[in-house]
Write a structure and sequence with these properties.
Elements lengths: L14 H4 L4 H10 L5 E2 L11 H12 L12 H15 L8 E4 L2 H12 L5 E6 L3 H9 L3 E6 L1 E3 L2 E3 L2 H6 L5 E7 L11 H14 L2 E5 L25 E6 L12 E4 L5 H11 L5 H13 L1 H22 L5 E3 L7 E6 L5 H11 L2 E2 L1 E2 L10 E5 L4 H15 L3
Helix pairs in contact: 2-12, 3-10, 4-10, 5-6, 5-9, 11-13
Length: about 400
């Protein structure tokens, strides 16, 4: 770009200059550029979307269901989401609280765009998926991190530290539970405490519950909707991606208070007019008939988790907490202080790509995230390749 003689010319929004860099995405692309590199860096498994979901798309296309959708999603899908919440969680949700979105990521973006003004702060529990930080910055907000700590073999959030970060600029609290990357699940008593705290101060809660059905030994994780009132300033984010192996479909949903319906609908209208109609019909089938597939996935994740834990326990340099949910091993490597450099070295030297812990927040640069949703044969091969990197120096 040419420089104007009298000033530096920048035709783009100032937020791009202020956004934190996404080195993890660059490393992911770098790993995928290597022909023999095994990638366990991304949050998806090896299984394709099950055929009964794909067949519904074929049926919808053959029946000509290719026209515009409604702003907040097909009424049939919104009703199926309400039915799903009633069946699995015991929630009673009117349709005006439910919006269909183009992915869980899009749901977070819509929620933040509806409430943030330039300079507003969002207090976030970390480690957290980097995209949620970037989305907040793109919407004009600023993320204030509150890191969790390992305590008594578990991840622990100090609620008093979390609440202590709130000030006059705080617009929202952001909580991912079950958590990516740790698998931590917020206890029900803490959910109640956060709701009461936010309610008393008119602060929004953004609850990312995309991994809510990935509990290893339970049907579901506790939800903020279990204890919230209908008009609470609460957005709950969900997605079809993880539960039904639909990462590439970009389909999710957002639940908010009833008075948010018009705001979210307008944002969807002006952003992309919602997900494709035929994929929404497939979403109905996933919600209605997807429990058996989910059970098989959960069995697979649990077996793979044991495989990974058994392998990593052989290294004295590795410290790991067994997670109750999700499909990640988030582990610390003693002596490593630059996870980005470590990941690049692993890609170059042993042909394995993992996610750098430093991408998930301040204070986690000695960590790595390994996704164990892949085929067990691929995971075993990756673990064997990692041996020279993780063994004692």
């Amino acid at each position: 770009m040419k420089q104007r003689p009298d000033r530096l010319f920048n035709p783009y929004r100032a937020c791009f200059d202020n956004m934190s860099s996404n080195l993890a995405a660059e490393l992911l692309r770098y790993g995928k550029s290597k022909s023999n590199c095994i990638s366990l860096a991304q949050g998806e498994g090896s299984l394709p979307t099950p055929s009964f979901i794909c067949e519904e798309v074929h049926r919808s296309l053959s029946e000509g269901k290719t026209f515009y959708s409604f702003g907040a999603g097909l009424p049939e899908l919104r009703q199926e989401i309400a039915t799903y919440h009633s069946r699995i969680y015991g929630h009673s949700l009117p349709l005006n609280r439910i919006s269909v979105t183009s992915s869980g990521t899009n749901a977070v973006h819509l929620a933040l765009m509806s409430i943030l003004e330039e300079g507003d702060e969002v207090i976030a529990v970390t480690p957290i998926w980097k995209n949620l930080i970037g989305i907040t910055e793109l919407a004009g907000g600023k993320i204030i991190e509150v890191p969790m700590e390992q305590k008594d073999g578990k991840w622990h959030l100090d609620l008093q530290k979390f609440f202590g970060k709130v000030n006059k600029n705080t617009k929202a609290l952001m909580i991912v539970s079950p958590n990516n990357p740790t698998g931590w699940v917020m206890p029900t008593e803490d959910i109640r405490a956060v709701l009461e705290f936010a309610r008393a101060r008119d602060i929004w809660i953004i609850a990312d519950e995309v991994y809510g059905r990935t509990m290893h030994d339970l049907v579901k994780a506790p939800s903020f909707l279990d204890y919230a009132e209908d008009d609470d300033l609460l957005y709950v984010v969900n997605s079809f991606s993880k539960t039904w192996a639909m990462t590439g479909w970009r389909l999710g949903w957002l639940i908010g208070p009833g008075h948010s319906e018009d705001k979210i609908r307008d944002l969807i209208l002006y952003e992309n007019m919602g997900p494709p109609t035929f994929t929404q019909h497939a979403g109905i089938v996933a919600l209605r008939d997807g429990e058996d597939f989910l059970k098989s996935q959960k069995s697979r994740w649990k077996r793979n988790q044991e495989l990974v834990l058994d392998a990593l326990s052989n290294y004295s340099r590795v410290s790991i907490v067994k997670s109750p949910a999700a499909f990640y091993a988030f582990f610390q490597v003693e002596g490593e202080t630059d996870s980005f450099a470590l990941v690049r070295r692993m890609i170059d030297d042993v042909g394995v790509s993992l996610a750098p812990g430093g991408a998930f927040g301040q204070g986690f640069n000695g960590y790595l995230r390994l996704c164990f949703a892949a085929n067990p044969e691929v995971i075993s091969q990756a673990l064997k390749r990692l041996e020279p990197v993780l063994k004692d120096n």
